[in-house]
TrEMBL record:
It comes from Rubrivirga marina. It is found in: Cell membrane. The chain crosses the membrane at residues 46-73. One of its GO terms (cellular component) is plasma membrane. GO terms for biological process: cell wall organization; peptidoglycan biosynthetic process; proteolysis; regulation of cell shape. One of its GO terms (molecular function) is serine-type D-Ala-D-Ala carboxypeptidase activity. This is Uncharacterized protein. It catalyses: Preferential cleavage: (Ac)2-L-Lys-D-Ala-|-D-Ala. Also transpeptidation of peptidyl-alanyl moieties that are N-acyl substituents of D-alanine; [GlcNAc-(1->4)-Mur2Ac(oyl-L-Ala-gamma-D-Glu-L-Lys-D-Ala-D-Ala)](n)-di-trans,octa-cis-undecaprenyl diphosphate + beta-D-GlcNAc-(1->4)-Mur2Ac(oyl-L-Ala-gamma-D-Glu-L-Lys-D-Ala-D-Ala)-di-trans,octa-cis-undecaprenyl diphosphate = [GlcNAc-(1->4)-Mur2Ac(oyl-L-Ala-gamma-D-Glu-L-Lys-D-Ala-D-Ala)](n+1)-di-trans,octa-cis-undecaprenyl diphosphate + di-trans,octa-cis-undecaprenyl diphosphate + H(+).
Length: 860
């Protein structure tokens, strides 16, 4: 057969009628032409058809891996590392103690008790691995196959557990840093933390940490507390079915709760037993026998962390968190020791006083209100109930939901009881340091967690009048100055006139404060200006925003009880303002001091003004609205002020005695509910008994000394049979040291400034009980023409016997015997002359010291 030689194909001839393919830059069109080109070889077409997609896919994969690597790298700073694990597993709670070292409470992330792995039954570990992580001993913290599947399902919107035991441990230890959300970020952080844990810890350490930190219900963390909670047992004593039940709950503590869902819990437990048999750690017959057993639950819920002073503890925690955040400490895990100012003995007495007196007042309120409760207050409480929220969520309108919950008789009774519940709070502060010795925020923290001492803002009523009279003293008025107590008319900014009630006849400033006269206080507020009242209050310790209005002096701006007691403590501390102090210092567990708390004081009032004001507040207790405190049997040098707000919604009383300022508030959570009569709702009948009860319980523990006297007042003198005051030789005058005079006469007025005063208390026994003659008085009022009258005059009949500051002209000088002079009754005994000269600054004579005191008082 003859072979036909190859003949070359003729070249394509071009014809004007043939279509011409235009060149394109579109890569997809070029790719499609290359794949469908009939003229190209099949190999080229195959290479282009598969190679291009493969290359694109490979490039995309590389870019995706690179992008994920960058993303994971960006999460590293937010992801706990192995050091964090060691810190978490070795964490110790922070202990809070009182002023004597008695434990108040402790701060920890959860309630747990650590058990070594050697004490945990082997079958519990086997059940855990068989159910949660079969390849636990084979992977390095991440099961990549399960992780990829979990991520893929997450992207599709479904949730699938792909976490190993190590990853679960990371999530349990660091819930804030990692979280529980089903997101790529959470799974990435979880995986990174797991790798870090596996790199630096053994499998046994990981198992031990996991079993001691895994959360269960009923406030139990770890298998030891879980064993106590569900089986009234201990971890080493758990049986195989009990271990399987605990592992079964890990899938979903609520879903497989053996208390509420026993059938679901039983099915899940039996699945764990079957998986143990499949893994060969349990025989098939044993598994079947265990599956036939009941759950045998003996529920013993674990208590939450106890606090002996819960409201105080909450306040300490707020302050401590701010401190720890600024310094990089973990309050729950660093094993700190927080030494506080609280006196647990006083705290228990304060709680007892609040509970006892508020209980009596509750019976009064129940008798006044019965089942009658203000409708608005009742409806407001109904709107806070779960039943109301569920009704609204179910599609009802607010009015329909309200009508439905009102119809529930049991709910109505419960809500009404809550609305008319009498609440009370008490705060006690040591004036010299600002240390809070007692802090009660409510009658019962278990019933009402709201802090009525340091958080609740309520109108203080007449307790605010102290700032008005403090401002008047700063302006140069004196306690014996007379003031017109008639009805005062105050013109307001809007042109209207405000006339406060409580007018009386003319009297002194001291009487106006003692008897809590509103008209006189309003007149005095107008004289010195509402702005000065606000300024004085803020300097003395009130930190809440104040409404600078004409009625500010009557206590119309809401404040906290803690603020008011702190301000009164300023009065008791010679005008030196100390901020309320809760914490004294923070230490490590070994006793190393990390920080101390407490700073400089601020001289808010001059010593002269503070002592005058305190003496005026003595009159409240001795002859004014605070007399019931004496009638209760409270002893000691006392000063204070009552307060009552409109419609008897709030009752206040604040008392001072050497070493302690204590105040109480009584009222209702809803101010539309009040005591319904003056006889039952005044502060002297609600809050005063609370303070009095507390003082009766603790007064034996307080120093039995007197406050320093005000300027111009000596101790009351004894009189002989003829009515003449008993005289003491002038020689004793020289026994008074310059320091004695300083305490007696006070200091010249000056503007308040920041001063660095050591945070120590001056011993009470070092304060001589000296009093001086009354200063010039001022008569404040309006004449018949409506003009202000300001007449300065001397008091003709002082309440206490006047004592001349200089001896008579015929008296010898220098402490020699001769004509006697009158000096304070409680002056210190005559020391040895040599000692006397050393005590007197520069060896001053009696005359020189007296003249110095006169100049200091401005009478020279």
């Amino acid at each position: 057969m003859a072979l036909t030689p190859n003949v070359a194909r003729p070249a394509r001839s071009w014809s004007p009628s043939a279509p011409v393919e235009e060149p394109t830059r579109n890569p997809f069109k070029r790719y499609w032409r290359a794949v469908t080109d009939d003229e190209a070889s099949w190999g080229r077409r195959l290479f282009v058809g598969l190679g291009v997609p493969f290359g694109i896919g490979l490039g995309g994969l590389v870019l995706g891996v690179a992008a994920f690597a960058v993303y994971a790298w960006s999460l590293l700073p937010e992801t706990p590392d192995a050091y964090a694990l060691a810190r978490a597993t070795q964490s110790q709670p922070t202990v809070v103690v009182d002023v004597r070292g008695e434990r108040i409470t402790q701060f920890e992330p959860e309630f747990r008790e650590w058990v070594p792995l050697d004490s945990i039954p082997t079958h519990l570990v086997d059940a855990l691995i068989a159910t949660e992580d079969r390849d636990f001993y084979g992977h390095g913290g991440i099961d990549y196959q399960r992780t990829v599947g979990a991520i893929w399902n997450t992207l599709k919107g479904a949730r699938q557990g792909g976490s190993t035991i190590t990853q679960q441990l990371a999530r349990n230890l660091f819930p804030d840093e990692i979280g529980n959300a089903g997101t790529i970020e959470r799974k990435t952080k979880e995986a990174l933390a797991a790798r870090a844990i596996e790199r630096d810890h053994t499998k046994r350490e990981i198992l031990e940490a996991y079993l001691n930190t895994v959360p269960f219900l009923y406030n139990a963390h770890g298998v030891e507390l879980a064993a106590r909670t569900y089986f009234a047992s201990h971890a080493p004593d758990l049986t195989v079915p009990q271990s399987a039940m605990l592992v079964a709950m890990l899938k979903g503590p609520n879903q497989f709760n053996p208390v509420r869902h026993p059938e679901a819990a039983t099915d899940r437990r039996n699945l764990v037993l079957r998986l143990m048999a499949e893994q060969g750690v349990l025989g098939q017959e044993e598994a079947a026998a265990y599956q036939a057993e009941g759950l045998d639950i003996d529920l013993q819920p674990q208590p939450s962390t106890y606090s002996a002073a819960p409201h105080f503890t909450a306040a300490v925690r707020r302050e401590l968190d701010a401190w720890a955040t600024a310094r990089g400490y973990d309050v729950d895990r660093d094993g700190l020791v927080v030494r506080t100012t609280l006196d647990l003995t006083m705290q228990r007495e304060a709680e007892a006083a609040v509970a006892a007196r508020a209980g009596r007042l509750q019976r009064t309120a129940d008798g006044q209100w019965g089942r009658r409760v203000p409708r608005a207050a009742l409806d407001a409480a109904f709107r806070k109930t779960t039943a109301y929220a569920q009704a609204v969520d179910g599609g009802m309108s607010e009015s329909e939901a309200l009508a439905e919950v009102r119809a529930d008789a049991a709910l109505w009774d419960s809500v009404a009881q809550t609305v008319r519940r009498v609440e009370a709070s008490l705060v006690a502060i040591q004036p010299e340091t600002g240390a809070v010795r007692a802090y009660v925020g409510s009658r019962d923290f278990r019933v009402d967690e709201y802090d009525h001492a340091g958080v609740a803002l309520r109108q203080p009523g007449s307790t605010f009048k102290a700032f008005v009279f403090a401002g008047a003293l700063q302006r140069g008025y004196g306690p014996e100055d007379e003031i017109d107590g008639g009805a005062a008319e105050v013109e307001l900014d809007d042109g209207t006139t405000w006339t406060p009630a409580g007018g009386w006849s003319e009297g002194t400033l001291a009487d106006a404060l003692a008897y809590s006269k509103n008209a006189a206080t309003a007149r005095l507020t107008q004289e010195i200006g509402p702005h000065r009242v606000a300024l004085v209050a803020q300097r003395m310790g009130v930190e809440s925003d104040l409404d600078v209005v004409p009625s500010i002096g009557l206590g119309t701006s809401p404040v906290t009880l803690l603020e008011m007691v702190s301000a009164y403590a300023t009065i008791a501390n010679d005008g030196l303002r100390r901020e309320p102090k809760l914490i004294t210092r923070v230490e490590t567990a070994s006793g190393t001091v990390l920080d101390t708390f407490g700073g400089v004081g601020r001289q808010a009032l001059t010593r002269r003004d503070a002592r005058n004001l305190l003496d005026m507040l003595r009159g409240v207790i001795d002859r004014g609205t605070g007399r019931p405190l004496r009638e209760m049997g409270v002893t000691g040098d006392l000063a204070g002020k009552t307060g009552t707000t409109q419609e008897y919604a709030d009752g206040w009383f604040i008392a001072m005695r050497p070493g302690l300022a204590v105040g109480a508030w009584v009222g209702f959570n809803d101010q539309r509910v009040t005591f319904r009569s003056k006889q039952t709702g005044e502060g002297s009948r609600t809050a005063l008994p609370v303070v009095g009860d507390f003082l009766l319980r603790v007064q034996d523990r307080l120093p039995n000394v007197a406050f320093p006297p005000p300027p111009g007042r000596y101790a009351d003198l004894d009189f002989d049979a003829d009515g003449d005051s008993l005289l003491i030789d002038e020689a004793d005058v020289a026994d008074l040291t310059a320091e004695d005079y300083e305490w007696a006469y006070g200091e010249d007025p000056y503007d308040p400034v920041e001063v660095d005063v050591p945070d120590v208390e001056r011993p009470m026994e070092d304060r001589p009980d000296l009093r001086q003659p009354p200063p010039a008085t001022r008569r404040i009022g309006w004449d018949g023409n409506g003009q202000r009258s300001d007449e300065r005059q001397r008091t003709d009949a002082p309440r206490r016997a006047p004592i001349p500051r200089t001896p008579p002209p015929s008296a010898p000088r220098g402490g020699q015997s001769g004509e006697p002079v009158m000096i304070p009754r409680d002056a210190p005994p005559t020391p040895d002359p040599e000692v006397r000269n050393r005590n007197n600054r520069g060896g001053m004579t009696a005359e020189e010291m007296i003249e110095e005191a006169r100049r200091r008082d401005g009478d020279g």
